[in-house]
Design goal:
By secondary structure, this protein is an all-alpha fold. It has helices at residues 2-31, 38-81, 87-107, 114-119, 125-157. It has five helices and no strands.
């Protein structure tokens, strides 16, 4: 019974958000003309456009939070109930963390290129380390992903 009430509430909320979005789109489209400037558009329907973005941001944040929280709760429940089944997940998370720490602390450097300085951008050493470490992290994750794909394919040949 409680699940049915939650489903009804969520379906009603979803429909309300869709209807509100459609209403805002109709208002924005009906208020715009082909040769208006940005300032005229802002005066005509800027407030409605702002509300459209508020809806998009709210739904996006709520969806991301729900996905992360659902994953974490499911993982913790499985970790408590059956620890052995979660060893692979823990190993994978450990590898992610290890690669992240290595890419940031061992491989990234704080060199600020002269091209940044000549273009007028102010880049600090810590920003350079963060950007470089992030790029190295993505590269290393890509290499690990490709290696795991190759490993899976080669090992399936010998089974």
């Amino acid at each position: 019974m409680k699940e049915n009430i939650i489903n009804i509430i969520l379906k009603t909320l979803r429909m309300a958000i869709m209807v509100l979005g459609v209403i805002l789109i109709v208002i924005i489209v009906s208020s715009s003309v082909a040769d208006e400037s940005r300032i005229e558009a802002e005066a005509s329907y800027g407030e409605f456009l702002d509300w459209m973005f508020y809806i998009i941001y709210t739904v996006g944040i709520a969806s991301a939070l729900a996905a992360v929280l659902f994953g974490l709760v499911t993982f913790v429940i499985k970790l408590v109930n059956d620890f052995k089944s979660q060893i692979g997940t823990l190993a994978g998370m450990s590898v992610f963390l290890l690669i992240g720490f290595l890419s940031y602390f061992a491989f990234a450097d704080g060199t600020v290129m002269s091209a940044y300085e000549s273009s007028g951008l102010t880049v600090t050493e810590s920003e350079s380390v963060f950007a470089g470490g992030s790029m190295i992290y993505v590269y290393l994750l890509g290499i690990v992903a490709l290696a795991s794909i190759v490993w899976a394919e080669v090992s399936s040949i010998f089974k």
